[in-house]
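Hallway conversation turned thread

IA: we were arguing at lunch whether anyone had actually written out Enoyl reductase (ER) domain-containing protein end to end. Turns out nobody had. So, for the record, here is the sequence (498 residues) and right after it the C-alpha cells. Reply here if something looks off.
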Amino acid sequence: MKLELGLSALITGGASGIGKALSLALAEKGVFVTIIDFCHEARGKEVAVLLESEISKFHQNLNFPPAMFIRCDVTDSCGVVAAFERHVGAYGGLDICINCAGIPTSVPFHKDETDGVKSWRRAVNVNLLAVIDCTRIAIRCIQTAKKPGVIINLGSSSGLYPMYLDPIYSASKGGVVLFTRSLAPYRHQGICINVLCPEFVRTEMAAKVGDKLIELWGGYVSMDMVVKGAFELITDESKAGSCLWITNRRGFEYWPSASEKEKYSISTSPPGKRSSTKTKWRFQITRSFEKVVVNTLSHNFRDATSIVQSPLSLPIKSNHVLLKIIYAGVNASDVNFSSGRNFGGKDQDLGSCLPFDAGFEAVGIIAATGNSVKNLEVGTPAAVMTFGSYAEFTLVHYKHILRVARPDPEVVALLTSGLTASIALKEAGRMESGKVVLVTAAAGGTGQFAVQLAKIAGNKVIATCGGKEKAMILKELGVDRVIDYKAEDMKSVHFSLK
C-alpha cells in the first residue's frame, strides 16, 4: 500500500512506546490516526494533540478530528468494536491497523500462586487474545470497504526464541507470530497481515529488564529502525504474511529463512520434477490506478484516448484475477481499435460503447485472486490477451491468464506475433520437417518468429526483407537464403537449397 494523504490508521497501545512512535510517524505522513489505549485520559489526549498538530500540516478546515484518542481496554470486545466503528464513522473506512497493545507478566511465573486473573491470564488476554480480536474486527472493516488494507501485529523477538525471564510473555508473543503468519492467504483479498518482531526497544516495559542484560543482546533497537520496518511492511505487498525480525546484531531479517521454510514446506510439484524458483516482485495495490481509455472514435490514437483514474474495488470477483501490468504491447492495430474498425458496424452504433479500455496484450504479476481461483497464486508471472492492457492493473477471468516464466518484455511479443506465426505455420500451413519454407517480411515481429519456428522444425528457410540491416538480422537468425528486395530483383533470383 502506498502511504498517501487521507489514509486512516487505528493503533492499539498508541499512547506510549512503539505504538506512540508509529502513530506519530504516520501522522507525519498526513495519515488520520485513532489511538486506542487504557492509559490515563490526560495522557491519551496529550498524544492526540501531538498527532493533530502533525496531521494539520497536510489537512486544513476539516469537519472531523484529524486524530482521536479512545480510552479502551483491548480485552473488552464490545468496547473495541465500538472504537473501530467510531474510527470508520469518522474517516469512512480503515486502511491500516497496528496492534501494539501489550504488557509483561506482573508476577514472575514461578512465584505466582494466584489464579492468574490479574497476572499471567491478563497478559495472555492482552498480548494474544486481544490481538486476535482486533485483527478479526480490522479484517471485517477492510472487507466492508472493498479496498486494500494492511494489518501489523506487534510480536517480539521473544516470540521467536525463549525468554526465560517471562515465559508467559514469550508464549503469548509466539502465538501472535504464528497466528499472523497463518493469515497470509488474506493477501488474495488485498489485505496484507504481517507481524513485527523487534528485539529490546527503549520503552517502559523494556526498562524493567535492565540495561546490563539488554547489552548482552547488542543493546536497544532504535525506534527509527522499528518505524522503518513497519513502513516496509505497509508499503510492500509482497511481504504479506511475513514476520520481520529486527535486531542490532543482524538488522532486518525475515523469519523464518528460506532454508528453515524448506523443513516444513510441502512441495506441490509432481514426483521427479523440480518446482521453478519464483522471483519476488515488489508492487503496491493502490485504491485507484491509471488506465488508457478511448473516449472518441478516431484513427489518431492520441486524440481518441486519455489517461483516467479508475477505482480498485476489493475483494475481486470470485473467479477473476487481478494482474499488475509491467509491460504492455503496442500494436499497429491500436489505431484500428480506437477508430472502431475492429468492431464493425456504424460509427453512431459504436459511439454508444464509449468510453472503452485500450490495449490488447500485457505481461505482469498476479496481484490478487478471487476465492474460487485455486490454481493461480499471488506473485505468479502471467500474460493476458484481453482489452484493457494499457493500464496499471487489469481484472480478467482466470481462464484468460497465461502463466509465463518471467514477466519480461519479450513475452509480450510472443502473444500476438508469436502466436500468429505459430498458427500460420502449424495450423494453416501444416508445416512439416525437411521442407523449404518461404517467409516474406521476415524481419518484422511475426516474420522473425516464423523464421525461428521453421528452423526449429528442421526446415530450410528463404526470407525476404528490405535493407542491409534487416538482412543481417535474418542471417543471424539462421535463414538459409535472404532476399533483400532493395538490392535484388526478386523475379530474377535463382537459388538452390541443398
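OS: looked through it. The first helix runs from residue 17 to 27.
IA: good, adding that to the notes. Residues 267-279 have pLDDT under 50 and may be disordered.
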